[in-house]
């Protein structure tokens, strides 16, 4: 793997607190191995979302942040995204533009007469 390609960690369902230490170790090892700064967590196989999945994802994000990286979600179920939003957790989702950046190919229009900023 190169430094530009993030590693992928598939999270099989159901996840639990018992699997958490191994998953956190996997995240840290993948961050070390790739130096990409991102681990993509494929959450498509988690099944019905619940608070256990939210807890595991929050702890994986914390482990990644402590190790100088971050988590990006792949294939999150809409219900999981809603649950994450409900509890106030924000995750980058693969294939979506980051909030700080406009989508590629989109330019901000300037109308004649607009004041300079």
TrEMBL record:
It comes from the Bacteria. PROSITE patterns: STAS. It holds the Pfam family STAS_2. The lineage of its organism: Bacteria, Bacillati, Actinomycetota, Actinomycetes, Kitasatosporales. Residues 1-113 form the STAS domain. This is STAS domain-containing protein. Residues 95-107 have a biased composition (Basic and acidic residues). Residues 95-117 are annotated as: Disordered. InterPro entries: MlaB-like_STAS, STAS_dom, STAS_dom_sf.
């Amino acid at each position: 793997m190169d430094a530009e390609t993030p590693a992928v960690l598939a999270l099989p369902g159901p996840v639990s607190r018992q699997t958490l230490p191994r998953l956190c170790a996997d995240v840290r090892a993948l961050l070390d191995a790739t130096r990409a700064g991102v681990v993509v967590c494929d959450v498509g196989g988690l099944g019905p979302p619940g608070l256990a999945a939210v807890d595991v994802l929050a702890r994986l994000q914390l482990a990644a942040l402590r190790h100088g990286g971050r988590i990006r979600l792949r294939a999150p179920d809409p219900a999981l995204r809603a649950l994450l939003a409900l509890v106030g957790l924000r995750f980058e989702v693969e294939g979506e533009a980051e909030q700080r950046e406009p989508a590629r190919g989109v330019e901000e229009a300037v109308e004649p007469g607009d004041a300079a900023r």
